[in-house]
Amino acid sequence: MKIYSWNVNGLRAVLKKPDFENFLKQKKPAVLLLQEIKISKEARAREDIDFSKYGYTAYWNSALRPGYSGTLALIKIDECLGATNGLGIKKFDEEGRVQTLEFSDFFLINAYFPNSNHELSRLDYKLEFNHALHLYAKKLAKQKAVIIGGDFNVAHQEIDLARPKDNIGNPGFTEEERAWLTEFLDSGFVDSYRSFFPGKIKYSWWSYRSFCRDKGIGWRLDYFCVSDNFLSKIQTVEIHDDIMGSDHCPVSIEIKTNREKIN
After folding, report:
1. Residue ranges per domain, the chain?
2. Tell me, what's the pLDDT at 258?
């Protein structure tokens, strides 16, 4: 089973580009987690956005604020046992940041972590969100393995961004954000990409300014973190930096399943 995650920075914008449709047709994700869809419930009904033509069931979690945040899970396989939205905390749930999909032997969380923003105006909010999600994931992990895929909006180590010295203390590379991710990983979760590729430099986000993507000036902000006892079931981990369409690129993991045939 191959699972992809992609911050599309606006679903309507990415749907207008050939990159996204080509991606669906060529990669055929079994599960696709999308973040920052930026479309309200009313707008998507009005515009009749339909993924069934690609063979997907869509699970939506739009933010209350139009044109902001939001998550979406697209599932092609028939193994999903159910889907829920949110953490049960209003100030986070109204921004549509978390979805949970249940499968027979794991929970899959689609997460769009807050950006701490310029002047760190939302750092406290983000750290509260991080803590709440951590508690939620640990609670789920008592039942079965947990996979969290999404835009974590943090570069964990200096290897995870092109210019670490210049960005110390900046949003996404503050001591507090990095320390939280260390704490999270020390509590029974594994950064799957860094586990497979301890010293490899690859990025998943580039600023639109100054041709940063062309120059290779990026950050690794998008992760799949898994319960440490589930890591042995991960076959491949990839960052698809050749796929265009957003300021982020997709990331993916492939999981061993008990099915003889993978759709």
Report:
1. 2-255
2. 64
Is 124 a catalytic site residue? no
Q: How far apart are alpha carbons 105 and 115 in whole angstroms? A: 31
**208, two tokens:** 């639109």
Record the pTM.
0.96
In terms of Cα–Cα distance, which of 6, 71, 2, 58 is closest to 30?
2
Catalytic residue among 4, 59, 112, 223: 112
Q: How many CB atoms lie within 10 A of CB 9?
A: 18
Which of 56, 59, 136, 151 is an active site residue? 151
Asked if residues 221 and 155 have their Cβ atoms less than 8 Å apart, the reply is yes
List b or e across 173-206, with b for residues whose CB sees 16 or more CB atoms inside 10 angstroms.
Answer: bbeebbebbeebbeeebbbbbbebeeeeebbbbb
pLDDT in tens, 48-76: 898 999 999 999 999 999 999 999 999 99
Closest Cα to residue 130, out of 73, 84, 189, 83?
A: 189
Residue 43 sits at φ, ψ, to 5 deg, of -65, -40
CATH T-level assignment (fold) for domain 2-255: Deoxyribonuclease I; Chain A (3.60.10)
Per-residue pLDDT, 239: 98
Q: Which residue has the higher pLDDT, 220 or 44?
A: 220
Is 151 part of the annotated catalytic residue set? Answer: yes
Q: Token pair of 241, please?
A: 């930096």
> Tens of pLDDT along 218-234?
999 999 999 999 999 99
